[in-house]
Amino acid sequence: MEADDVTIREQNFHSQVREYIICFLLFAVLYIVSYVIITRYRRKTDDHEDEDAVVNRISLYLCTFTLAVSGGAVFLLPFSIISNEILLSFPKNYYIQWLNGSLIHGLWNLVSLFSNLCLFVLMPFAYFFLESEGFAGSKKGIRARILETFVMLFLLALLILGMVWVASALIDNDAASMESLYVCTPVGLSRMFAVMGQLLVKPTILEDLDEQIYCIHLQEEALQRRLNGSYTRLGFTHQLTKELDSIRNMKNKLERRKQASGWEKNLLYPIVMLILLAGTTISVLLVALNILYLLVDETAMPKGSTDRGGIGNTSLSTFGAVQAVLEIILMFYLMASSVVGFYSLRLFEGLTPRKDDTTMTTIIGCCVSILVLSSALPVMSRTLGITRFDLLGDFGRFNWLGNFYIVLSYNMLFAVVTTLCLVRKFTSAVREELLKALGLDKLQLSHSPTDPESGKLSANGHQKTL
Questions:
Q1: What is each CA distance from 212 to 84, 129, 240, 426, 464, in whole angstroms?
Q2: pLDDT per position as a tens digit, 212-238
Q3: What DSSP designation does 452 have?
Q4: Residue 233 and residue 241: Cα distance in Å, rounded?
Q5: Over 70: is that where the pLDDT of 5 sits?
Q6: pTM value?
Q7: In whole angstroms, how far apart are CA 221 and each of 378, 379, 461?
Q8: What are phi and psi of 358, to 5 degrees?
Q9: For the chain, which terminus, N or C, has the lower number of CB atoms within 10 Å?
Q10: Residues 6 or more apart from 128 whose CB is under 8 A from it?
Q11: Pairwise CA distance, residues 203 & 190, whole Å
Q12: What percent of the chain has pLDDT over 70?
């Protein structure tokens, strides 16, 4: 019996070491990718080594860690679904036995732990550390700034605890958990069409691009002559400069459309638009089916699973691996839509990162935003019925997941808002493209001589009419 006990302890030890190594390798890959992304957008500074440079470097490492955790939260549910399908397909394969319930459950708990750590400790520390200068009268240096940062974090923690205590005394805990739901995803689903339309080249149907480029060129020359005149006032000059920049952007877009290849204009753009439309439509249909399941079967509620060994026992997809792949694609699509919708909101437009011109303060805000969105992705996917995979770890312990009315209301709100945004955005976009293709957009009055959605422009800034 002693030999058997030693063998079991050795197996448990080797299993734990293997899980730690796998977790470390996965996080290392995410960390490297996150570092490359942040350095691509971070504003470049001189290489002079000083106190501010050290502070920026520390904040950069903390932001990179947070973004890596966000990536782990995004890939967590797809990785779990893929692991479950692989174990079902190859149950006796020795080389994939490391994909077990213990590893998956441990990954869920680690992501949940690090998400809270980054959201409530590391990111506030990085922000206050950047803004700190040391207390008045104290000796300047890194230590003084760290001391001020910890004091600010302590005061912030007291303030938050006080507010939470007062709120918990006034509001029921289950109702307060509704703060976890966010509504930027439906906005992002409709915004995805506009974003992809900017990245891709639209097909040219009954349009004369040469004539449009010629009119834009005349408009650019007219504005340039007015700017070169000595009679313009300072405020008016600034307005003319903004109009000239807008005209040049329109000119660049038209030239890009003219130089694009035929397959890019006539094949790639329609295919991408159809894919976006199909993804949004399937998402709405799945949510509608989930609403029906909620009404007739209480097991459709997104309650967390407490079975640590449930991975690989049964498929949670009706059509097996094919449906699992579709669910994973929809999850990434919803995540991308959430990010696009978040940055499309007027309140958060200032957080949009720009290549080589994003401050560390803005990067901290971006990392916090992406962390919140990515942490909500597993819960949102299960709540909306995108996947039937039971939530593992701390993600499935929210009290409101067992509240029928909250879950049903969120599903209905998502379906209605997404449908309205899609119909409004898609129909208006199709209508505008048809008017441009038929040349009827010239009949519409323009609010501004540089309105990109208006018709062709004349040399003096007025729109042509038929």
A1: 55, 52, 21, 25, 11
A2: 777 777 777 777 777 776 555 555 666
A3: T
A4: 12
A5: no
A6: 0.74
A7: 53, 54, 11
A8: -115, 125
A9: N
A10: 148, 149, 152, 153
A11: 20
A12: 68
For residue 248, give the amino acid letter. R
Residue the block writes with tokens 């039971």: 390
| Pair of tokens at residue 144 | 């003084």
Task: Scan for tokens 């130089």, then name that residue.
Answer: 259
Summarised one tens digit per residue, pLDDT across range 104-152 is 888 888 998 899 889 888 888 888 888 887 766 667 778 888 888 888 8
Nearest alpha carbon to residue 204 among 213, 193, 216: 213
Q: How many residues does the chain have?
A: 466
Taking only the tens place, the pLDDT of each residue in 274-331 is: 888 888 888 889 889 988 988 887 777 776 544 544 676 777 677 778 888 888 999 9
Compute the distance between CA of residue 466 and CA of residue 462 in angstroms, rounded to an integer: 13
Sign for the CA dihedral angle at 73, 74, 77, 80 comes to: negative
From 19, 76, 21, 65, select the one nearest 394 (Cα to Cα).
76
Residues 359/43, Cβ–Cβ less than 8 Å: yes
Give the separation between CA 198 and CA 359, rounded to whole angstroms. 25
Query: How is residue 418 written in tokens?
Result: 């997404």
What residues have CB less than 8 Å from 231, skipping those under 6 apart? none
Lookup: tokens for 259: 């130089």
CB of 399 closer than 8 Å to CB of 154: no
Structure tokens at 101: 């319930």
Q: Judge whether 394 and 108 are in contact, CB under 8 Å.
A: yes
Residue for token pair 């950047």: 130
Q: How far is 45 from 97, CA to CA, in rounded Å?
A: 48
